[in-house]
Amino acid sequence: MNNVIIALATPPLKSALALIRISGEGCFAMTDKLFSKKVSGIKDKTIFVGHIKDGGEDIDLVEVLAYPGPKTMTGEDVVEISCHGSMLIANEIIGAYLKQGARYATRGEFSSRAFYNGKMDLVEAEAVNDLINATSSESKKLSLMSLNGATSKLVAPLKKEIADLLSLIEVNIDYPEYTDIEEANESKISSSIDSIRDTLASLIKGGKEGKIIKEGLKVAIVGEPNVGKSSLLNALMNEEKAIVSDIPGTTRDIVEGDINLKGITLHLLDTAGIRSGADKLEEMGIERSEKSILSADVVILVLDARVGLKEEDKRIEQLAKDKILITVYNKDDLVKKKEDGRLYISALNKDISPLLNKIYEDLGISDEAFDNPSLNNARQLGLLSKIDSCLAEARQDCLNQMPIDLVSVNLYSAYNATRELLGEETTTDLTDEIFSRFCVGK
């Protein structure tokens, strides 16, 4: 009976209703002992209304939804109880099931059971967690595509192309005497690998774009004191988030805020002004600013349009050399002559549209990225890179005129990585780590 798991599937708060989810062989028999109506023996999903009792005493009038396996989310018998949204009631119901031998579900255990019972592949399972954590309609849309299986279908052609090439090589190795089969020569193998890598390049590009849409980007606003960084943050967020003052060193800690730029979430960081000769407290803020630059995806270097680039700004440029660096000249309302090629804004007057356009342009997100499924988390992108690396090595082996049985070694590694994408060749430790990120009850 300890195969039966139970969890509160709604937040642990006072509300109109609470939902308790139970799954596993034996959950119907447990429910029969606690519920005023018999659940066991049903052939299809059924809704009951009755009382949950514990020791003969009513706990609550509830609605019970019973789903016989294997046509359920987990592939097992599942019971969902809708009770009144008092945590006292919910905990008493859960406690009654625990007395019957059920146990608390761990994080993501319902979804992991669905995976192990073949109800979803690993890409679809990860989409469950992505959907729960979606912070924009665009990221939700991508997660729904993955949950519905559209993303997993991207792997099938890739897997088939590699398998076809491996099959050709194996036939040539096992049956060299046959003359009516296609020869697995250097030209055929290398051209096939090139074609597969073209497919991979498209998947990786789409995945990186999808990752940005799903997770957003960190944007650090940096520069010397009094160039208008806090004013820019306020203008971007359209609210007075940061304190604005003419006194140098006013911002001494990181001020954060999020905005949505054409479907991309930007996690904004307004940093302390970077300058030499600061006091000890301000130096701590400057140190945090430099760390923000290193952790950011995009760095906006704010300059005073009347002054231009100074020595400290060159240091910032060096720190941000591996980032998307956008230099803006603020306070353009105070300059009479503007130089060509410079990006001018007025944060105080909220005239920042040129900057917003520049950020979106430099991200390089295609319109198709918002509508197409993509393999876009770190695990999936890492495996796509691994496949590409294995294929590149196989191609080089081929060009070095190594025996085709040795060329196939790296091709097999690439093929196994495509299986790993879907969880077909995944260790228990890896899947446990993935599902541990889920919330309890999912």
Summary?
Helix content is 44%, strand content 17%. The protein is an alpha/beta fold and 442 residues long.
Tell me what you see in this structure.
The protein is an alpha/beta fold and 442 residues long. 44% of the residues lie in helices and 17% in strands. It contains 14 helices and 11 strands. The longest helix has 30 residues, at 186-215.
Please write out the topology.
Layout: E1 5-8, E2 17-23, H1 27-34, E3 46-54, E4 57-67, E5 78-84, H2 87-99, E6 103-104, H3 109-116, H4 122-132, H5 137-147, H6 155-174, H7 186-215, E7 217-222, H8 229-237, E8 255-261, E9 264-270, H9 280-295, E10 298-304, H10 311-319, E11 324-330, H11 353-363, H12 378-399, H13 404-421, H14 428-435
Parallel strand pairs: 1-6, 7-9, 7-10, 10-11
Antiparallel strand pairs: 1-2, 2-5, 3-4, 4-5, 8-9
Helix pairs in contact: 4-5, 5-7, 6-7, 6-13, 7-12, 12-13
Spans where pLDDT lies below 50 across 5 or more residues: 247-253
Number of strands: 11
How far apart, in Å, are the first and last alpha carbons? 20 Å
* Overall body shape: flat
CATH topology call of one domain: Rossmann fold
The helix fraction, in percent, is: 40-55%
The total of helices stands at 14
Strand percentage? 15-25%
CATH structural class of one domain: Alpha Beta
Sheet with the most strands, sense and barrel status: 6 strands, mixed
Could you report the average pLDDT, rounded to the nearest whole number?
Answer: 87
How is the largest sheet built, in terms of strand order?
Answer: 3-4-5-2-1-6
If classified by CATH, what would the architecture of one domain be? Answer: 3-Layer(aba) Sandwich
Q: State the secondary-structure class.
A: alpha/beta
Instruction: Name the CATH homologous superfamily of one domain.
Output: P-loop containing nucleotide triphosphate hydrolases
Q: Secondary-structure element order, as H and E?
A: EEHEEEHEHHHHHEHEEHEHEHHHH
Rg over CA atoms: 29 Å
